[in-house]
Design goal:
The protein is of the alpha/beta class. Strands 13, 14, 15, 16, 17, 18 and 19 form a seven-stranded parallel sheet that branches.
Length: about 725
């Protein structure tokens, strides 16, 4: 437990966190099973298959299915599926009769992930390969997401595809969605420059109102109409021409691209034209703030992915503070000293004081130099923002636009679009296709049409709506899990805070014994002698020592279920009190907490996996006219109740059978190292532990090597009686 509570949260760039990130659950994962060779095998199989890409427009497939294709990729739905021909190849390759058979689910799962890796995950767009590792690229900011991995084996499938080391799979220890995590806070607030388009989602999911704060100075930015070209090649020629025109008059340009691939393509085109420029993407993000801070210098050309320096001011003429920091770096000061020198904390360190003096001098010098350059940039029209493609979300486009025109400065923005762009291709619909055929124009003539601009906005609204529904669906399912999570974690917190749980343990014991007796009676009002012996066998040696409860067999038929309950519970309580007296109350209290925490964690992890499996197939319920969420709620409640019962039984079982090693205290962190052992609970003092724990049949040869059967051998190593 690392957080003390959730009182209030202030979130910077709140739309990026609460909206963009909200489709991805937060997961705490631990080491799971070692990755199998199946990833490499399926990679070798899928790499040889023939792919066909189809795009569904208004529920109609744009292309007829290719009968020779082994699998089909739907770019719009981001799915990859084997065809009948592909399934036949898979069954032959993996030597299985029926790939759909439940016994072949592992093979099928690995194939599906390999298909997804090949069909829908693109290098330098969805991920990059750096230093032999596959690193995810954030689709909204273009930044590398170190430490994050795709789940369900997709990351391993991509690693196999890229022929890098396939890392171990992870086990989910805990999970929560961004929405439910931030809804834990009593008060939630945040700020961003682009929230109005998501007003409905902020209100529906987080119950947050949006207040628009007017700009400090009047906005003088000029936002030009979008220009649309027939092909991508024509669009990029127009972008290069626009950059040239700005560059010649000294107007700084910031070009935004949607992927690393397009980013590097534009860089090559600029290099061919001999235009000096700075390139910024996830591969060289270390200099992000430095590059973006100087993007406003006279004649500067910066080509950036959507990272485009959120949180860094693009000042016309350049950023004096970054230039002064660069001077400190050249002077040989370490990064730590530079951070202290640019701060305001009190210090008597002479090196920091000297650095502060130099920083102040250089800052004043650069401000004076920049003042005249800033005026020349303003005369040239301020910063010119070029968008090379419309993003799926209008907010991302607005963020790019917002880089220009700060604090009343002049600026211009313009978006260049082609009918081959993913957004137009996948979500433009028939109207765009018909218009494309109607305009018999060459590649270099822009199409400017109000209807077209409206169609682009409609495409973006469609995608935003789809993404909202996707996030809403994730939340609906997680809300079910959230109630269970709150119950488990509130009890877990009480245990961690040192709550005395002896009464809870005894209540669990009462329930376990009651269930055992109830099961033995079934529908019968009374037990016979054989039924009594069977019932006693399951309790003796666990809850109390042998012979602690002795009811003459002649009296058994006259006893009711309640009579047995009372007798067994009294014996179990006595056994527990004796155990506590033996190891002392403080150790017993800590032992109860340790065991309960361990059991809760184990069963909760299994429950998370089971809930995930349930969710995978639950959507099929809609074919039977059932609401999948309602079925999920009903079935998950049954699973949760079963888990709670199992936790109670296992906690009691472990506490009654636990034996503490002598001269060692109970420590929570030591439990994993075998501090606590399960042994028989017959009340007798255990003898020396066997050196090895091996399950041996009576007629098996004894593992000590004597050559005798186990029942005839007398070696102390495997015989302790």
């Amino acid at each position: 437990l690392v957080q003390r509570g959730h009182s209030f949260a202030i979130v910077d760039e709140v739309d990026s966190i609460l909206i963009d990130e909200a489709r991805t659950p937060l997961i705490i994962s631990g080491q799971g099973e070692k990755s199998t060779q199946m990833y490499d095998l399926t990679e070798m199989f899928v790499a040889k298959l023939k792919k066909q890409v189809v795009v569904q427009v208004d529920n109609k497939e744009e292309e007829a299915a290719d009968i020779d294709a082994d699998y089909v990729v739907d770019e719009k739905a981001k799915t990859a599926t084997l065809t009948a021909r592909g399934i036949a190849k898979a069954e032959e390759y993996f030597h299985v009769e029926n790939l759909s058979d439940p016994s072949n689910s592992t093979v099928s799962h690995h194939i599906n992930q390999a298909l997804k890796a090949h069909g829908t995950m693109k290098r330098d767009i969805d991920y990059v390969v750096k230093d032999g590792e596959v690193i995810i690229v954030d689709e909204f900011t273009g930044r590398l997401m170190f430490g994050r991995r795709y789940s369900n084996g997709l990351h391993q499938a991509i690693e196999a595809k890229e022929h890098v080391n396939v890392n171990s799979e992870n086990r989910t220890l805990a999970t929560i969605t961004f929405q439910n995590y931030f809804r834990l806070y009593d008060k939630l607030s945040g700020m961003t420059g682009t929230a109005m388009t998501e007003q409905e989602e902020f209100g529906t999911i987080y119950n947050l109102d949006i207040i628009e704060i007017p700009t400090n100075r009047p906005n003088q930015r000029s936002d030009h109409h979008d220009v649309v070209y027939k092909t991508e090649a024509g669009k990029f020629r127009a972008v290069i021409q626009q950059i040239k025109e700005c560059h010649e008059k000294g107007q700084p340009v910031l070009v935004g691209t949607v992927s690393i691939e397009k980013n590097e393509l534009l860089s090559k085109l600029l290099a061919r034209e001999g235009i000096k420029h700075n390139l910024l993407n996830a591969k060289n993000h270390e200099k992000e703030a430095e590059i973006v801070a100087q993007a406003g210098k006279l004649g500067a050309v910066t080509v950036a992915t959507n990272m485009a320096g959120r949180g860094t001011d693009i000042m016309l003429g350049g950023n004096a503070e970054y230039l002064a920091r660069a001077d400190l770096d050249k002077a040989g000061y370490s990064e730590e000293v530079i951070v202290d020198a640019t701060g305001y904390a009190d210090t008597d360190n002479q090196e920091i004081l000297d650095a502060r003096k130099l920083f102040a001098e250089k800052l004043a010098q650069h401000k004076a130099e920049i003042a005249s350059e800033a005026d020349r940039v303003r005369e040239a029209g301020g910063l010119f923002i070029i968008g090379t493609e419309r993003h799926e979300s209008r907010r991302i486009d607005n963020q790019l636009r917002g880089r220009a025109g700060r604090q009343g400065d002049p600026g211009e923005t313009k978006f260049y679009i082609s009918l081959e762009d993913d957004l137009m291709r996948l979500f433009g619909g028939d109207r765009i296709t018909n218009m494309m055929e109607r305009f018999d124009l060459d590649e270099d003539t822009p199409i400017e049409n109000k209807m077209l601009t409206k169609a682009i906005e409609n495409a973006q609204t469609t995608v935003e709506s789809r993404n909202f529904q996707s996030r809403k669906s994730v939340l609906e399912y997680d809300d079910v899990m959230n109630k269970q999570r709150e119950l488990i974690y509130s009890q877990r917190r009480q245990v961690l805070d040192g709550m005395d749980i002896k009464d809870t343990v005894l209540n669990m014991m009462h329930t376990s014994i009651g269930n055992h007796v109830s099961l033995a009676f079934g529908e019968k009002p009374h037990l016979d002698a054989a039924g009594y012996r069977e019932m006693l066998r399951g309790l003796e040696g666990m809850y109390f020592a042998q012979g602690a409860v002795s009811i003459p067999e002649g009296e058994v038929p006259g006893k009711s279920q309640e009579d047995f309950d009372e007798a067994f519970i009294a014996a179990a309580e006595s056994f527990y009190e004796n155990k506590e007296a033996e190891i002392t109350s403080p150790i017993m209290r800590e032992l109860e907490r340790v065991v309960m925490l361990r059991v809760v964690d184990e069963y909760w992890m299994d429950h998370i996996d089971a809930m995930d499996d349930l969710k995978q197939g639950i959507r099929l319920q809609s074919y039977g006219n059932n609401n999948p969420v309602d079925v999920y709620k009903r079935e998950s409640l049954e699973m949760f109740e079963e888990m709670i019962a199992a936790i109670q039984d296992e906690t009691v079982r472990r506490l009654y059978s636990v034996r503490l090693r002598k001269d060692e205290e109970v420590k929570r962190e030591r439990v994993a190292k075998g501090m606590v052992e399960n042994v028989g609970g017959d009340g007798t003092k255990p003898k020396k532990q066997p050196l090895k724990v091996v399950k041996i049949g009576r007629n098996d040869p004894c593992p000590c090597g004597s050559g005798l059967k186990w029942k005839k051998c007398t070696c102390p190593e495997y015989h302790q009686n």
